[in-house]
Each structure stands twice: as structure tokens, then as C-alpha cells.
Amino acid sequence: MSPHHPEVDVVVVGAGMAGLVCAHRLRSRGVGVLVLEAGPRPGGRTAGAEVDGEPVDLGGQFIGPGQDRVYALAAELGIATFPTYTAGSNVLETGTGRLRRFRGMAPRLGPVTLLDVAQARFRLDRLAGTIDTGTPWRSPDAAALDGQTLQSWIDRTVRTRGGRRFLALAVRAIWACEPGELSLLHALFYVKSAGSLSALTDFEGGAQQDRLVCGAHGLARRLAAGLGAGLLLDTPVRRIEQDDRGATVITEAGTAWRTGQVVVAVPPPLASRIAYHPPMPAVRDNLLQRLPMGSVLKYIATYPEPFWRTAGLSGAALSLRGPITMTVDSSPQSGRRGVLIAFVGGRAARDLATCSEAGRRALLLDALSRLFGPPAARPTAFVEQNWNDEPFTRGAYAAVFPPGTWTGPGSALRAAVGRIHWAGTETSPRWYGYIEGAVRSGELAADTVIRALRPRPPAPAGEAARPPS
Amino acid sequence: MSPHHPEVDVVVVGAGMAGLVCAHRLRSRGVGVLVLEAGPRPGGRTAGAEVDGEPVDLGGQFIGPGQDRVYALAAELGIATFPTYTAGSNVLETGTGRLRRFRGMAPRLGPVTLLDVAQARFRLDRLAGTIDTGTPWRSPDAAALDGQTLQSWIDRTVRTRGGRRFLALAVRAIWACEPGELSLLHALFYVKSAGSLSALTDFEGGAQQDRLVCGAHGLARRLAAGLGAGLLLDTPVRRIEQDDRGATVITEAGTAWRTGQVVVAVPPPLASRIAYHPPMPAVRDNLLQRLPMGSVLKYIATYPEPFWRTAGLSGAALSLRGPITMTVDSSPQSGRRGVLIAFVGGRAARDLATCSEAGRRALLLDALSRLFGPPAARPTAFVEQNWNDEPFTRGAYAAVFPPGTWTGPGSALRAAVGRIHWAGTETSPRWYGYIEGAVRSGELAADTVIRALRPRPPAPAGEAARPPS
Lengths: 469, 469
Fold this sequence. Notes:
- The structure is a homodimer of 469-residue chains.
- Chain A has 469 residues and is an alpha/beta fold.
- Among the domains of chain A are: 7-46 and 216-280 and 417-453, 3-Layer(bba) Sandwich (FAD/NAD(P)-binding domain), CATH 3.50.50; 54-65 and 81-105 and 296-386, Polyamine Oxidase, Chain A, domain 2, CATH 3.90.660.10.
- Chain A has helices spanning 17-28, 68-76, 111-128, 142-146, 150-157, 161-175, 184-194, 197-201, 217-227, 268-271, 282-288, 307-310, 347-352, 357-372, 435-453, 461-465; strands at residues 7-13, 33-36, 48-51, 54-57, 81-83, 89-93, 99-102, 210-212, 231-232, 237-242, 247-251, 256-264, 275-277, 296-303, 313-319, 326-329, 338-345, 381-386, 420-422.
- In chain A, strands 1, 2, 9, 10, 11, 12, 13 and 19 form an 8-stranded mixed beta sheet that branches.
- In chain A, strand 15 (313-319) and strand 16 form a beta hairpin.
- The longest helix of chain A has 19 residues, at 435-453.
- Chain A is globular, with a radius of gyration of 23 Å.
- The relative contact order of chain A is 0.20.
- At the A-B interface, helix 5 and helix 11 of A face helix 5 and helix 11 of B.
């Protein structure tokens, strides 16, 4: 290796949860690691802020059963969890603005519509059961499933207009995109990757069951603190070169790090913006040309108290009228202050971007007050997090596969290219799109890199020389 | 402007046909222009080589009626055109390897299948007639058309298996992708942008009618020669900054050019890999996350003479068996030597990439000899052009819109961002994907930039002060 460059065993690009977990694990195994983060903070799609003195999550925040690795990580870091508040009624706002209270996950849509939605859920779950999450392109009927949008499936399968509208809302809530943007195969893969549709949508027993006392971003902060000088912020990587003896990771500022292995742990569209030498194989390049991120805005509104609870409401709401897709009670565990979070996903997230900030605030507060009454329009603080504008994230929750992608260049998603390995929630066959997927991908990347750094010792000479019997 | 940086009125990024035409036009209007090309040659998706002493086109090469600007450019540059060879029978290879000769554009598929295909073509043309190519997202029923793949439309509309297979082959020939990858709305837009399906598929009267005597790449070579020192090759741009007074275009090597206006004339996926400061608006960034290029390999096989002509064949063939999608006689005008070109588009282009070069050659020559007889297996020269591997093109013929893209962030495709303007065939409402689209986009960008550089003089004070009557 060149004496002119600083050297390190492994360079990890990106200090989102995947990169941090990967580096944490490598360190714990005695491997030297440097994490280069483009932005000014660690955490990636988890991000924290203090609002009215309370730590709030601007990004991913919920965890639930089956997400074993993130619970284990929280336990290891000494971060407690607590259940998301779910007591009381949820609210559905219809397209015409009427409010309907409901319990559990089956909103009052009228019996025919409800049956229609229930059947669609049943069919999606059953179809999802056929998907091989390790190699989705090899699932039965993969070409046909991947040659159509989820919208086409809904149009064929769901008979009622109300049912189609409700499912479109669910798609915006789950994937932060419109049903006409994603492949049916990807939707099924995603459901299977979490286990079932209920696992995706439910609070109790599902992916929204629990929260972390210091916010999910607390995980990232503690991991980052553990890395100390092994994490450089504000250090975008612009080029990765590979040669016979190693790799060189070159930052925007021109520093060139020599290393043995590289883990790129950034969202797929951003991985494509790093220059590679030698260039990436065509199949991987083509894959990264077609993995758009979902579009989502997250709003945090704080109140002196969770006033909706006294009205018998859980704080969870869905809106067919918009622009809000969904709200959740995100108050601190103590309940001494009220916090509502609201998501705007898919088309509405793009449309809102054309409004002024003040215009968006007015629209959102109006929507919140329709759902929870006039007090909702008078928050003590109101914070907007636009994930689509974040230059080193560029959308959320995750990349969404358009038709023809899994069965086209999809097999290139997880395959290492020489000394470059890929991590991030999108590379995980389990809990794709969730913090759990990021954690799993980081752990897997660390294990893979360790094997690559320490090739098995050659078999003893006697063994190797023994002719096959 | 900083005295430390070299300055120029306009910087054009990319010396494909769009960038070259733009620069040529700017120069002719007395505007100072510098073209920065990442690769070692001008021409972009047109590229030339000399094979057996004959100039051949490794990229785009055909032109046809309605492509007025490219004919005008050829005339201006003194480059003559001549008709593509079309005498004799075309050949269709069936999925089982049987050969069927046919004349014109209607292969012998059996009467029921043929009627099925004819009806599908009629319906596609009729639907395409409803599309507004300037603002496809505002076309009637745009959301529904854009929420499905072309495959879904074929599955619903085409009743015979043979018809569906033939249409899939046509999709590979036209878009270099599979029917399950592209939006129905995009397919209709593309058809309308050329005028009709016949305009896309036909030789005489269609987009494959004519060729250029020095090859289409001759246009690029002459334009590049005219720019002299105003064109820098091997100069990738990695960053474009904008401020109140101008823009700075920074190359991979670190040179920073100050300029008043910038035209980015590279394929959409590559435009996303330039770093922008301030960052691009979210809607444009999201658009560029989802505009994959088609996947195509082009082969050129030369022979002592066009032997197929004496057998009554035109040299044009379509194969349902693969891996070849389509062949065309590309012999020089003199006919003193035989040249066949073969395209492999869509999935087969990705699959072939997993073979060795020798393996691909063997597969291709076997396919050619099935179509044209044993002499086709013994070319005097055989050249492969893999557009998917080209680091500064990364696919061809053009970007293909997946579902949800035109009606999602599509409106950001052509909108200038401050001092940055976009050119390239993908930005053209007419002849998107063709050399003609590139030429038109370059001319339009030049005109737009000239207006931006030279704001209209303010109206005389008396005029401005006059109250409305």
C-alpha cells in the first residue's frame, strides 16, 4: 500500500444504522474501521431533535416483534423500550371529511367495502407467502408478478371504489408512494420480509408496537459515540477505486484512504452517485438507475398535554382526504406532554413541496384540527422533517422497486463487487425498509468482511497433498 | 466572478449530439461556449469505428421522415444520406426456430395472431393520439395509463399467445427493455412523440428509412471539429455550483470553470451523479432516481459481400428465439461489402453479460447463421458494442419511464433549475429516444440559454409608465 495514504482495515461509507452497526461489530471483533459520513450527523434515516425539551424522532422510530436484532442492540446499549400508546379509538377521515372512530386495524368502511378490503388483505398475504425473500426473482410466477404494478392488482382484485381508495391510502402509509409506482412482486416481497401485512400495519404485535425511551436515534448516537474518532462527519465519499492489493476511498475534500475492504451503507440512489473505478458491472449500474426512494414528510406537533386521550382517542388516524396519510401518538412515556406525529406520503408529499413553508404549516394544522379538534391547531411547537430534501438521504422510508426490477437486474442488489460490500435496509431479506433490516444488513456485512479479511488458513500440507480417496 | 477561475459564457456538459448541437448553435450566435465531455470521444450514443476499412456505426444510425432537424443538420454539414437497403424478404424466426419470410412490416404469424397484433397496434396508435407530448401527465386518463405497465395492457388486450410474444419482441426492438418494465403512458408518449407506431418500426417512411454516408457519428465528428479547443475530452464534471452571480462547473481533475449558464446534456441517470450545490429540488432528484436506460448490445458483422441479397433476403430479421432481437443490413451504399448489424435488447442483453466474450460471439454467430445461412457464421470482422458497460452512457437507446414516473415527478424533466438547463433526447417532446430528439433538445437549450444571457432591454420609460387603456 502507498505510504502516502492513511490506512485502515475497513472503510464504511455512511453512518446510518447499517453502517454504524457494521462498524460497531467490526470493532468488537478487533478490526480497525473508519466510518465516513457525508452529512453533519450520524443516524441516516433515524434522526433526533429536542422539541419543547422532549427528545423526538424525526425519522424511523418504531420497533416490534420479530425485530430481534434491534431489540438486542437496544438491550446491549442499555436503552429501554416502551409500548406505543394505543388506548382509545382510532380515527378514519373519509374523502368527504367525515370522521369515523374505530378500534384495532379495521376501520368502519361499510360492510361491503370492509369485506372487499379484508379479502384483498387475505389474498396479498397468501400471495406473499409464495415469495422467496432471498431470491425474489426465483419465486413462483415471478415474471408475471413483477410485470405489473400493485395498482393493476388492486384494480383487478378489489371491486369497491371505497376499497381501492383505502388500499391506496395503506400503500401511502406503508411505502410512501402511490400503488401505481411499485411492482406487485416488490409489495409481496416486502410483506413477506416482515412476515405478514398485519406485521406491517399493526401497533400491538406489529412493527409499531414499541418505542425507545431516548428515541430510535439514541441507538445511532450511542453507536456513534462508541466509534469516537473512527467516525468522520461532513465527509462525503466521491470515489472508490479497487486494485489488486486493496481499495482507495476518496473523499470530496480529496483525502484518499487505503483499505482492504469497503462497506457502502447508503440508500441505493446515493450509492450510484459514488464514482467507482473500475466501473460497476452493467447489471448493478442498471439496478441503481431504478431504485427510487419513497417520498415522505414527517411532522411533529407538541401540545401541553395529550388532549386527544381525554376524548377517548388514541391519536392514531388515517385520512382519505389528505394531505395527511396517517398520525400516531408519539408522546413521551410519561404522558406529561402531548406529541402527535403526522406523515404525508406519496403524491401528496411531492405536491406539498410546491407550497410555502407557512402554507404547509397551515394545511397540516387544519388537517390535524379536523382529526382531533381545535386544540390540535395550536401546538406549542411544530416541526417539519422533509426527507426528500435531505441531500444525503433523498427520500424515505426506503427504496421502492418499480416493475421489472427484481426480475431484471435485481440479483445485483446484494452481490459484493470485489472488495466492495453493500449494506443498508434495502439489502436485507428480512424487514426490508425497517431499522431492523438496517441492523441485520450491518451485522451481515461485518461478518462477510471479517471472512474476507481473514481467509481461512490453508489446510495442512499433508491434508492438501492427500489424493482423493 | 473570481479572477482565479477561467471564465466562459456557457458550459455544456456532455458532447453527445444534444451537447454538440447546442454548442454549435451557441457559437453561431456569437456566444462563448465550452463543452466538457467525460469520455475520450464526442458523439455520446452515436459512435463510429472503422471495420474492414468501412465506417460503421456502433450506436444510433438511422434517420427518417419527420426528423427534419437532423436532415437539416446533415445538409448544413454537407453529409449526404442514402436509403437503408430493404429489397427482398425479411425473416422472422419463431420461438421454435422456424424461419418465415415476409415482406413489409407484417410477419407471417398465422391469420388469428396477425389480426390480434394488428388490432393491438391500432389500439396503441389510437390511445397514443390522446397523449399530450409536452405535458404527458396532463393527458386524458394519465393516472390510470401511468399506473400500469405496457405488459399489463398487452395481457388485457392481446388474446393470442403468439400475439403477446410478438409484441414483447417489438418492445425489445423499440425500447430495449421488457414490456413489464415500462409505463403504458410512457409507451404511448413515445409513439406519439414519433407520430405513430409505423414511424417507429418502418424502414421506408419510418425512422429507419435513411442512413448517413459517413455514418451518423460523422455528424458528431464534424460538429466536434468545428468546436476546436472549445471541446475538452476526458473531462468528467463532478460538481456544479450556483450562486447569485453565476455558476461554477468543477471537473474531476479539479478545474473550476466560471460561467453564466450551464447546459447538462447527458443521459438522465448520469445527470444524477453530478453533485449540485445548492442541491437539486427533491422532485427532480426523485425523478432521476427512476429513469433507467434501456439495455442493448449492438453487433456488427462484416462479410466480403452482402450474400443474403442474392438469396432474396433484405438482411432484416426478427427473432422470437433470441438472443438476437433484430438484424438490419448495414452494408455501405456501394454494396461492395456486406455488413449485418444485430441488436440484443432487454433481458437477453443482461443475460448475455454473464457469458464470456467468446461465448457471446459463438451464440451470436450461431443465431446469425440460423437466420441467414452458414456464411453468416464466418464474418471477416465481428465487433461488439456493449452500451450498458459504457461508463458515460450506461445503457441505450434511451431512458425508459417506469409506471408512476410521468404522473409523479415527471414535470421536473425539462424545467431549468436556476442557471442549469437540461438537454438530451429524453428532454424532447418530439422524437424522444432518437438522434432527432437530441438535435432538437440541443437547439432548444441553445435558444433558451441565449434568452437567459441577453435579457430583453427594458421597455422605454414612456411605454412602461403608460397606464393600461
